[in-house]
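Q&A FORM
Asked by: J.P.
Topic: structure of Reverse transcriptase domain-containing protein

PROVIDED:
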Amino acid sequence: MLEEKNRRYRAYLNEKSPSRKAALDNNRNTVKRKLREMQNTWLSQKADEIQSYADRNDTKWFYDAAVTHQRRRHQKTSPCEQQPRPGYTSTLPEVEKAIGQLSRGKALGADGILADVYKHGGPQTRKKLTELFHTMWVQRAVP
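REPLIED BY: S.T.
REPLY: Here is the structure written out as tokens.
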């Protein structure tokens, strides 16, 4: 599902035509819908599980399941925690798009660097960032 989405995205980047854009949008909507369905199914099963503990007055398992669920809802995952896709590499257009979406004049980021530095860093900065993101993805760690 995601491989198809990524394939269509790369095809769109190679040739930005209305038909490829429509195919990409359609595929994105399908992926989002399926993901929502999967999330709803999981959430429903988890709710049934927690309710069964409550019905049996099993407070230990009830609170354990509820707390675990809450903890998972509030955890933030970074791209480094995802499984690397074979053959995937950060692309310069992806990095340029991300840099373009940064807000100017805001506080320092987590890395201690202003967004303006990235925006005005030029092609060499973008190239080095692309290489850094690729390394982070492959090594699943921040160097």
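FOLLOW-UP: The longest helix spans residues 18-55.
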